[in-house]
Amino acid sequence: MITGNVVHVGMADLKVVHCPDRLRSVGLGSCVGIALWDPVTKVAGLAHVMLPSSEGFPREQRAKFADTAVDWLVEMMLEHRARKERLQAKLAGGAQMFTFAGKNDLLKIGPRNVEASRRALAKWSIPIVAEDVGGTTGRTIELSSEDGSLWVRTVRGGSIVI
Questions:
Q1: Tens of pLDDT along 57-83?
Q2: Domain count for the chain
């Protein structure tokens, strides 16, 4: 039996919950869901990032960008008694939703979001223990604060737990 509340994390948003609550985000196309979990305190955090870098954008949009969202999410997790050395990360999303002629990497937002998310987590030495990234289809995700499992459902059907 599933208990707790489901807390929705919107686009360019992030939230932190305690056990038994869960975090859900929909509409992960090229966006990346960055899920963090502390297995001892059972504190979970989820960021729904839209773009890889905050360079040239206002500081108040921190959750929108991989480079600043991870910093903010870790800070929030620590405020909720999580410990940095125990944090585990999972990533989902980062699809290439559209096909473009040519090789302009600037248009490859999904893969760039994934790489920026990996770099931001590496900066904090947070291991990525599982991921479901890339492809060409959108995803909905739900993070359990109870056990850190991340349920991933794709737009075209099918789901996995990582």
A1: 777 789 999 999 999 999 999 999 999
A2: 1
Whether 152 and 92 have beta carbons less than 8 Å apart is answered as: yes
CA distances, 15 to each of 76, 91, 116, 124, 152 (Å): 8, 15, 20, 19, 18
Domain that holds residue 23: 6-161
* Tens-place pLDDT, residues 115-156: 999 999 999 999 999 999 999 999 999 999 999 999 999 977
Tell me whether residue 66 is in a domain.
yes
User: Domain containing 105 — which CATH number?
Assistant: 3.30.1330.200
Q: Which residues are identified as catalytic?
A: 31
- pTM (global) more than 0.85: yes
